[in-house]
Amino acid sequence: MKPIFIDKLFKNITQAEKNEIGEIYYICRHSHDAQGYPYFEYLVVNNLNPDNLIARFKDKEDAEEYVMLKNNEL
Questions:
Q1: Do residues 3 and 16 make contact, with C-beta atoms less than 8 angstroms apart?
Q2: In terms of Cα–Cα distance, which of 16, 23, 72 is closest to 45?
Q3: Residue 21: helix, strand or coil by DSSP?
C-alpha cells in the first residue's frame, strides 16, 4: 500500500484532514523556512502526535519507503 502524501505544507493541513488520515505515519511538504539547514522537501509525521515530526527527506521515494517500514512495524 502506497503511503499517504498530502501535497500541502504541514502548517496548512487542517485538523479535519488529519482526522481523515487512516495511517499513523504520512508524508507532507516541508516549509523551507529554516535558513542555514540542509534542504529537505518532505516531512514524515506521526498522526497520533502531529507535533512530533519523525523525519525529513529530500526525495519523496525515500520518504515513502520509510513510511511503509514504519506503518508495517505496527
A1: no
A2: 23
A3: coil
Q: Which residues of 39-67 are buried (b: 16+ CB within 10 A; e: fewer)?
A: ebebbbbeeeeeeeebbbbeeeeebbebb
How far is Cα of residue 14 from the mean position of the Cα atoms in its chain? 14
List the grid coordinates of 21: 488520515
pTM of the complete model: 0.80
Pairing of strands 25-29, 5-9: parallel
pLDDT digits (tens, 9 = 90+) for 13-32: 898 998 888 778 999 988 76
18 residue type, one letter: K
| Contact present, 28 and 43 (Cβ < 8 Å) | yes
* Phi, psi (degrees; rounded to nearest 5) at 10: -55, -45
